[in-house]
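General statements about sequence and structure are easier to judge against a single worked case. For one protein, we set the task of working out the structure tokens from the amino acid sequence alone. The sequence in question and its structure tokens are set out directly beneath this paragraph.
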Amino acid sequence: MSLLIVGTVAFDGIETPFGKVDRILGGSATYIGISASYFNDKSNLISVVGGDFSKKNIMLLKEHNIDCEGLSIMEYEKTFFWSGKYHANMNHRDTIETQLNVLEKFNPSVPENYQDCKYLMLANLMPSIQLEAINQL
């Protein structure tokens, strides 16, 4: 299966009744790619991160057979950040903070070897960015 994921790779700050983390790997494309790796041999990723995104996190994606050729790195910018607080009913949460950072300047570029995707997963991004990716396929 040829899966192309276009979405966010981010840092999240999460608080629940059971604990709190200030900065953890997050983003819709991250979760989709890692989840898909249990059912799919390889996924291709289009997203953007800042210079604060570690090589360790990129290696984690690659360890889950996620091709990161389409992951743009804006060296002097910050990665997208979201924080939220979940309640006792984990279906309810409040967004505390959203920092768009690199997403404000993101212009997706679909690498040539991603052009033959059979499945396209448009994850959490502005519709204009999603449409730009579709138009390149």
In short: The mean pLDDT is 96.
